[in-house]
């Protein structure tokens, strides 16, 4: 797990921090400062072999929906979690390679 912390300065001088969890992906974050209640810029899009990045979510179980960087204000400490979808083409390719390997082994070792 890679975690990057984004500190935020609140309207009255208190700090609000947002951590980004790549959830198995690789990414480099940047540090930003905004006033309490302001929106934040989206962290660098992470990458993960065999997966498509679906967005940043506040809930690791994906029950709250994708974070809206254009409209949602940051008002408390939170963690943004990367969400992934398995690339079906990568899965199909892996299954086909495995199937060919098994068939070749079966032909050579009856």
TrEMBL record:
<protein>
    <recommendedName>
        <fullName>Bacterial repeat domain-containing protein</fullName>
    </recommendedName>
</protein>
<dbReference type="InterPro" id="IPR042229">
    <property type="entry name" value="Listeria/Bacterioides_rpt_sf"/>
</dbReference>
<dbReference type="InterPro" id="IPR013378">
    <property type="entry name" value="InlB-like_B-rpt"/>
</dbReference>
<dbReference type="Pfam" id="PF09479">
    <property type="entry name" value="Flg_new"/>
</dbReference>
<dbReference type="GO" id="GO:0030313">
    <property type="term" value="C:cell envelope"/>
</dbReference>
């Amino acid at each position: 797990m890679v975690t990057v912390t984004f500190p935020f300065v609140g309207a009255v001088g208190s700090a609000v921090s947002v951590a980004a969890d790549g959830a198995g992906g690789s990414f480099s974050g940047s540090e930003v400062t905004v006033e309490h209640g302001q929106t934040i810029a989206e962290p660098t899009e992470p990458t993960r072999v065999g997966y498509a990045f679906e967005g940043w979510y506040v809930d690791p179980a994906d029950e709250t929906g994708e974070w809206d960087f254009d409209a949602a204000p940051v008002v408390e400490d939170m963690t943004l979690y990367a969400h992934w979808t398995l690339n079906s083409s990568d899965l199909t390719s892996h299954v086909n390679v495995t199937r060919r390997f098994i068939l070749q082994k079966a032909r050579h070792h009856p």
